[in-house]
Amino acid sequence: MHVVTCHVVHVWKQGPNLYEKERVIMAKERFEEVYIQGKLNVTKIIRDNGTGVLYMLNQTRYNAGLTVLVDQEGNPLVDKEYKS
C-alpha cells in the first residue's frame, strides 16, 4: 500500500445559516472512524461515508497529519464494506 501525504489547512467560513453545531453534526454523519490505534500517538483510519474513500489520520501531542490512502496504481482506496 502506498501513502501519499499532504498538508491540511483548516479554513473556517462563517455563513449566515451555518453554525458550529451544524458543522459538527454534518462531519459526524459524513465521516466515520473505522480503525483506531494508540493512545499518545494515535493513528486512525477514517471513511468518507459519501464516497467510501479511506483516509489515515496521525495525531501526536502537538501535530496531526491527514492523507488519502491509495492503491498501487495511485487510485483512492475505497472501503470494501462501503455501501453507497
List its salient traits.
84 residues; mainly beta; five-stranded antiparallel β-sheet; 1 helix; 5 strands; 13% helix
> How much beta, percentage-wise?
25-35%
Query: Based on helices, strands and strand pairing, what is the structural class?
Result: mainly beta
**Count of alpha and pi helical runs:** 1
Question: What's the total number of strands?
Answer: 5
Helix content: 10-25%
**Residue-averaged pLDDT:** 77
Task: Explain how this protein is built.
This protein has one helix and five strands, in the order βαββββ. The chain starts with a strand and ends in a 14-residue tail after the last strand. Strand 3 and strand 4 (54-59) form a beta hairpin. The chain has a five-stranded antiparallel sheet. The chain has one helix at residues 20-30, and strands at 2-3, 31-37, 42-48, 54-59, 64-70. With 84 residues, the chain is mainly beta. The longest helix has 11 residues, at 20-30. It is 13% helix and 35% strand. The model is unreliable at 1-13 (pLDDT under 50). It has one domain.
